[in-house]
Amino acid sequence: MSSPDPAFYHPAPRTQRFCSQCGHTLSREIPPDDNRIRDLCTHCGAVHYQNPRNVVGVVPILDDRVLLCRRAIEPRHGKWTLPAGFMELGETTEQGAERENQEESGARIRIRSLFTVIDVPSVNQVHFYYLADVLGPQLAPGPETLEAGFFPLDAIPWKELSFRTVHTTLEHYLNDRRDGTFPTHRYAIDFRFPD
């Protein structure tokens, strides 16, 4: 996996203001025996660690078409995306990807394999996309989706895609399909989407 480009690596701080243990105001400092600035309660000593959030999703394929969903929520309302969202507690990345697909597209799928792992340090996220076979054409999009549909691989709406991770994952799928191999791709990218 390549290292993040320092030109875009400016992690967004996710600080909380009050201690969830005792309610006192937190400070930002390096705790004893640590090497990073943390949210620290100087009253009770609790350290509040902030860790990356996982985004999980699928590349759903039916015949020679990819299933995309038009976002009904911000950010990027109205743009096309792969079915994906934040992982929930108590689930694996694969279970989260299946759940997000069900919530956003309603398509029946079978997960094949992990396809892309994309570090997005500028927004404190890691994106996991799985290849998935769609088991039938029936769709039932949920409230986070304006519409869902199947796109031939030569008709993907590239300029209307929601995020760079979606764009990059679809590019890898097309290249791997042409080459006949589907390795897991791991790398870091900037979150910002090119205009």
Q: What does this 3D model show about the protein?
A:
It is a single chain. With 195 residues, the chain is an alpha+beta fold. The protein folds into 2 domains: 14-50, Ubiquitin Ligase Nedd4, Chain: W, CATH 2.20.70; 53-188, Nucleoside Triphosphate Pyrophosphohydrolase. Helix content is 14%, strand content 33%. The chain contains 2 helices and 11 strands. The chain has helices at 93-104, 164-179; strands at residues 27-29, 38-40, 47-48, 53-62, 65-71, 80-81, 84-86, 109-120, 125-134, 145-152, 185-188. The strands form 2 sheets. Strands 4, 5, 6, 7, 8, 9, 10 and 11 form an 8-stranded mixed beta sheet that branches. A 3-stranded antiparallel beta sheet has the order 1-2-3, with no helix packed on it. The protein starts with 26 loop residues before the first strand and ends in a 7-residue tail after the last strand.
